[in-house]
Structures are given as C-alpha cells and as structure tokens.
Design goal:
The chain is mainly α. Helices cover 72% and strands 3% of the residues.
C-alpha cells in the first residue's frame, strides 16, 4: 500500500491510501522514482503541477521490448539449467521451456488474468515443453530441465521476505507473504505436475545425468542467469551488471563456505550477509534502493527449487519427502532472512560510529 499524508495550511490532516499492484517488477522505475523523491526533498516544488508533470514523465519510462524480455527468460532458464549441473542439451531445452513460459506469462498478464491461474497455466506450458522435447527424442534429464526452467516462476525471494517479516515481528505481513508464496508454489507444482502426468505413459529416451563443472563456472552461470532476469525485471545499464555480480559473488561465498563446513544452512547465512552487504554498498554508491540489487542478486541462493519440490511431493502424497523438503526450505529461507537482517541492523550502528 502507498499511504500519503498532507497537512493543509489550516492544520487539517488528509490521508489517502492506494493499493499498488504492478504487473511486474520495474527496477529502473524504482531507481528513477527514488531519484525523484530525493530531488523533491532537497528542492520542494512550489507548483503541484510541476510534481505531476515529473511523475508523468517517469511513468512513461522506457522498458525493454517484449521480445528482449522473452530473451531474458530464455537466457535465465538456459544458464540455471547449467547451474543445476545440466548439460548443454538440458540447458537448451530449459531455455526453450522458459521462453514458452515467458510467452504465456506475457500474454496472460496483458489479458489481466488471475495471478494464480496465470502461474498454473505458465507452469503447465513449461512442463509440457520440457516433457515434449524429451518424448520427441532429445536426450535430456527432464528433472534438470524443469529445475532450470522453473526458476522463471519460483517465489524464492517472496519466501525469504516472509521469514524476514516474521523475524522482525511483522506477523500480518509475514503471514500474508507466506500465503502468497505457498499459493505460488502450489500453482507451479499443479501446472507442471499436470503436464508431466500427461506424458507419464510415454517413454522418453534415456537422458544425461548431472555434469560436474569447475566452481568458477558455476559462478559464471549464476552471473549470466541473473543478467538474463535483469531483462524482464527492467534492470538497465551498470545496475544490471552489478546485480549479476552480486549473484555470482553470493554463490562464490556459498561454495567457499560449503567447502569448509559442508553445512548448507551456515553457508546460506554467510552468503546472504555478503550479498546484502554488497547490495547496501552498491546502493549507497549509486544512491538508489538496495532492494534493486537484492531482488536479482539473491536468485542463486533462494530456495525456489526446493519450494517447488516440496509442493510437488505434497501433491503426489509423498509425505516424508514433502516434510524433508519443506523443513529444508524453511531452514534455508530463515538463514537467508537472518543474514539480511544482520546487515540491516549493523548498518545504523556503523553509521553512528562514523559520525563526529
């Protein structure tokens, strides 16, 4: 919600509240409106019409064309399949499935369809594309292909935000965000699971297994995948590169922590601290919100895949696997949220120490 309050010269207070429900995240728009708010605080306009004119100019900000955004879905799914140890065949198939999913998301979004039904339909298209390619003879691992392509839909950051809200005591926002994350994960599992069930009777050729890459390559895959998602999220210029670097840095720290302790929860906590610190530093350097960098930079760390797997096992009636994936997801999301909160709590203390 956007809440605006104004005090009239006679002392009366007026408050207006509007619900903001954008069709997609617009990082460039967030940064431009942040610049506008800083400018208005430094030099308040005397004429309200001037404020309306400047806001109107920002509303008309350039976004990437639809074709470029769809290419972002392809690139993101392609490199996340490699990120999940898939081969080049799995990567290409995941890219095509992600592209088909992006087309469905774009068309249904323009039609104003219900978000839940949009996610179900998009996941169905994604799962059908991956299974269809396998049935047609492409030697791929369907599981890795779907894992890479599903990243265009998973509500991983939403799940982390829910944990962050609960840890800070904001129960209403936390429960609302939790319900949104669970519904999104359920919609993904329902759509993709239905598509895979339709192909269950057909025998695809044996696909390839996981491929082991050098740690540096995994970081490169994370960087390019994050850069791909910068297109539909409308991150432009240097900001997009910094978002991708944040994702690669976070995964490099995660791999380093895993090599020392082999504990995914501790590694997630440390990596989240590093990504959050990176985001805050880049935000201060470029004078824009840190959220812009967190949205993209956290993609390799968020437990989006395990959310989908948990809901998929739940829909199949596999209670043991569902509980294992669910509690693993909760644990990782809690560690990521705690890492973000540690940085957020430490920054005010550091700023006070620097003041004379």
């Amino acid at each position: 919600c956007l809440i605006v309050s104004a005090t009239c010269p006679d002392g009366r207070l007026h408050t207006v509240m509007r619900r903001v429900a954008p069709a997609s995240v617009d990082i460039e728009g967030i940064e431009r409106f942040n610049d506008l708010s800083r400018s208005l605080c430094a030099h308040p306009p005397q004429d309200p019409e001037e404020l309306l004119r400047r806001c109107g100019e920002l509303v008309k900000l350039r976004r990437y064309p639809a074709a470029v955004c769809l290419m972002g879905y392809f690139v993101g799914a392609f490199f996340f399949a490699l990120f999940f140890s898939g081969g080049w065949a799995e990567a290409a198939s995941a890219g095509l499935a992600g592209l088909a999913c992006g087309v469905c998301l774009t068309l249904l979004g323009r039609a104003g369809a219900n978000p839940f039904l949009t996610t179900v339909a998009s996941a169905f298209v994604l799962g059908g594309a991956a299974c269809g390619l396998a049935v047609l003879g492409v030697p791929i691992s369907v599981e890795i292909t779907v894992a890479g392509a599903i990243m265009v839909l998973v509500p991983g950051l939403v799940f982390t935000n829910f944990m962050s809200d609960l840890l800070t005591g904001d129960l209403v926002a936390g429960l609302a965000t939790f319900a949104r994350a669970v519904l999104s994960a359920g919609a993904i599992a329902l759509g993709a699971g239905t598509a895979m069930a339709l192909f269950q009777g057909l025998e695809p050729p044996p696909g390839g297994g996981p491929v082991e890459y050098a740690p540096a390559l995994y970081c490169l895959f994370a960087f390019v995948a994050c850069m791909g998602f910068c297109l539909p999220y409308n991150a432009q210029g240097l900001g997009a590169v910094l978002c991708g670097l944040g994702g690669a840095l976070g995964w490099a720290v995660y791999l380093g922590a895993m090599s020392l302790a082999d504990n995914p929860f501790a590694a997630s906590l440390i990596a989240a601290v590093v990504v959050s610190a990176w985001s805050e530093r880049m935000a201060r350097w470029r004078r824009c919100p840190a959220t812009s960098y967190l949205i993209i930079g956290m993609f390799p760390l968020v437990p989006g895949l395990t959310i989908y797997q948990a809901m998929d096992f739940g829909l199949r009636g596999n209670t043991d696997q569902f509980l294992e994936r669910f509690f693993r997801t909760m644990g990782i999301a809690g560690c990521l949220a705690l890492g973000l909160l540690l940085v957020a709590a430490a920054l005010p203390l550091l700023r006070r120490r620097k003041r004379p």
